[in-house]
């Protein structure tokens, strides 16, 4: 003859040792069960406290059970109660699932098996909700239209700007050449580049040239794409200045 009372007491001791603070005895009036026998409440979360899964919302479930007279040869009395964030429809669905599993595990201590099943069900159920929310946010982000501001840069507009910039730079350098350099015959006259490379620039001119060189180093141009003859620009400027 099976000693049901002994098996039930042994299961209670095992659950206390395994679940610790998550396991407690409650009064039958708090259980929601139609019984006067001992009732117990187990707190269940979707995942362990150590797990770092931000996709699962913070929900908590109380699984309440009481052993029947011939447990485990007959299923225990079960009740599910929300401690945080679980809808009544979810509680009803979970209870039906656990009652079905209890009927499939008759003849053996099954409460811890039901606890594990409840935890897995909560994880899947609320992780799915979190995934649906994330999908909605992604769709909303896709619907946002980003309108660019300002005039877009094209190859043509860049080349126009570059030509203007280098022309202005060449003219500024030409202005640093003293008037005495203009008096020399054309065949003996140094080009702008030769004049700068000869070291005849004034201190002011040298400082300005160094500043221009810093500018040149900061801007990386591809000479294969666009070529400018700086000497021609300077010679053109000097010729205009001589004629005037």
UniProtKB/TrEMBL annotation:
In this chain, the stretch annotated as Disordered covers: 194-223
Q: Where is the composition biased (Acidic residues)?
A: 209-223
Which residue numbers delimit the RWD domain? 10-125
Q: Which InterPro entries match?
A: GIR2-like, RWD_dom, UBQ-conjugating_enzyme/RWD
* Domain of life, source organism: Eukaryota
User: Sorted alphabetically, which Pfam families does this protein's record hold?
Assistant: RWD
Name of the protein in its database record: RWD domain-containing protein 1-like
Q: Which organism is it from?
A: Salvia divinorum (Maria pastora)
